[in-house]
Amino acid sequence: VITSIFNESNTGNTFKQWAKGIQMAKGELIWIAETDDYCDAYFLEKLVQPFKNDSNVVLVYSQSNRVNEKGEITGNWITHTNDLDESLFLHDFIMDSNEFIEKFLICKNVIPNASAVVFKKEAVDLNQHFDIAPEFRYCGDWMFYFKLIVNKKIAFVADSLNNFRYHSTSVIAKAVQSENRITII
Prior knowledge:
This protein is of the alpha+beta class and about 180 residues long. The chain has eight helices and seven strands; from the N terminus they run αββαββαβαβααβαα. Helices cover about 35% and strands about 20% of the residues.
């Protein structure tokens, strides 16, 4: 970590913080590590490999464990993709992103956790990728992924290398309870 910046006030928009962090980043790859998530010791080592194997890959993500408020692993997100393809997400893959969008991302966000994603900084256009409307507060990451990967390649690592807190007081759970937005989306 070269620089730490603390906000004077809460912007109320995660994606403004993403844009700020990406703009300040000096490296070639970006990992947005959300506050309450954590990863395996080999997460970055394994997610960097597909970038080395194929220069057209702009985004790599791994399977995520579901973790409760006590930090206990309660499963992973493979069930989130089973209705679209029961076998593909059991193995690592590199795929044309337009095919990935058509088969999966157009149906739902099959990248359920931003903390499981590493992407190329050079692929981000801060003006176009972050013109996310306020009503996309809960699915702005989904819109960002669409814009980032179109006409490129995406890679998936099947190992559960990321731990995503999903419990009754998590942001997603609160959104479902208060606004039912996740169901609508």
